[in-house]
Amino acid sequence: xxxxxxxxxxxxAPGTSPSGAPEASPGDAPHASPGGVxxxxxxxxxxxxxxxxxxxxxxxxxxxxxxxxxEPAAYGLLVRLEELGRQRATELAAYxxxxxxxMSRQLRALEELGLVAREPDPADGRAWxxxxxxxxxxxxxxxxxxxRARYVSQLAHWDRxxxxxxxxxxHELNQGMAK
Length: 179
Prior knowledge:
Largest sheet: 3 strands, antiparallel
Radius of gyration: 25 Å
Helix content: 55-70%
Oligomer: single chain
């Protein structure tokens, strides 16, 4: 074994490991788990899993609050229409990540519930635009307002700057995952 302690006879640059990565400072805890995965990413994966599981459950609850017969997956369509207004079915399908047939089925169900209506696209007579009905807008708005009120209540003890930072980081994460 040589003085550098790596046993291969090659010296490392000060402050770097044999791989060239920066070495941990004496007070730093090791970042890799025994499997070689960074603890930070294991923690991120665990927390996102919990968040997504809760989000799916909440989406089902919110869908039922909009209408008892509404499928949980369709709630996101209604929110998208509330935020952006009229959309083509192909745009909605691309946003949600489903095929045309699935989107047609979901839109038909939403029409039957009186939550959306289709109208001819003035820019392309072959296409249709989907929009919330007044009933759909009212119901979705009421559910979203109640959800925001729950967030305010649950995070009332947080500093507003921390809430803003969480929103910024989640936006950054969503933007990165969309690519």
